Amino acid sequence: xxxxxxxxxxxxxxxxxxxxxxxxxxxxxxxxxxxxxxxxxxxxxxxxxxxxxxxxxxxxxxxxxxxxxxxxxxxxxxxxxxxxxxxxxxxxxxxxxxxxxxxxxxxxxxxxxxxxxxxxxxxxxxxxxxxxxxxxxxxxxxxxxxxxxxxxxxxxxxxxxxxxxxxxxxxxxxxxxxxxxxxxxxxxxxxxxxxxxxxxxxxxxxxxxxxxxxxxxxxxxxxxxxxxxxxxxxxxxxxxxxxxxxxxxxxxxxxxxxxxxxxxxxxxxxxxxxxxxxxxxxxxxxxxxxxxxxxxxxxxxxxxxxxxxxxxxxxxxxxxxxxxxxxxxxxxxxxxxxxxxxxxxxxxxxxxxxxxxxxxxxxxxxxxxxxxxx
Length: 374
Description:
alpha+beta, Elongation Factor Tu (Ef-tu), domain 3, CATH 2.40.50.100, Helix Hairpins, elongated, disordered N terminus
């Protein structure tokens, strides 16, 4: 029985010897390590607080006759908010002024009488007792005039309390008492005003950062940035203005406050924000994209592309991470090409093909650094 000849699966060289197919290059994305000035930051979750918050209460009793704002209105210091019926206090002022005029007249008469008796005493026509009594009456009348003047000032002050004005610039909340209600002094809250410009952002950081924060605060104000978690716009910029005088012993955290100019009212009291406090700037640091750094059981590493387009698995020491850049303390030099995507298919010595346009494709021997000068 004849058998059909089998076809060989191996390729052959020119001499007829079999050869294995060369492994194909692994497609990867890559970037070039560069040098840059990188901010050293501490990040935390913070919350926005009003720069000042005032709860308005009446200082006298009476009926509210007018409300001069609408809920949520922006007000300035001195703007009129409420009017309490002033008529009882106007009458009280008139009465105090009338008592003052009466007692002034009596004091003037008592002074004249005291002078007359003193003159008679010098001519031996009045006794010591008469002279002393006349002087005491004059002094008492003068004291009554001073008391009446104080009464007039108090009546004016109570009349002034009938017009309630804003003590700060800010935004009023919802009114808590409506027109026509009777209020008592220092009892019912009328409205709350929050100052929004400037505004505070309060946050806490671990106590290990405190020495560095205190050290760099002596050299100048530290900058802070804040942004809502769902906000894609530019970050609000402020400065660190408060460090608490103690560390919370239960959490090991210290409370900080940053002050932000908030003219556009972008930051709103009560909302949570992501805060980045810049402590200092690392000058001329070697940086790579953060996605280039991988972690193994032996530590962190990157794949570095050699000139022959093979990769080397190189251990690195990470100093810090800022935004999407990682500062490398050792293991990578400026100009090295590192793999940023496709690491899962790589092994040391593997051949790679960098996925990029020819004009953008980083080359191991002549690639430009990321974000700064080499």
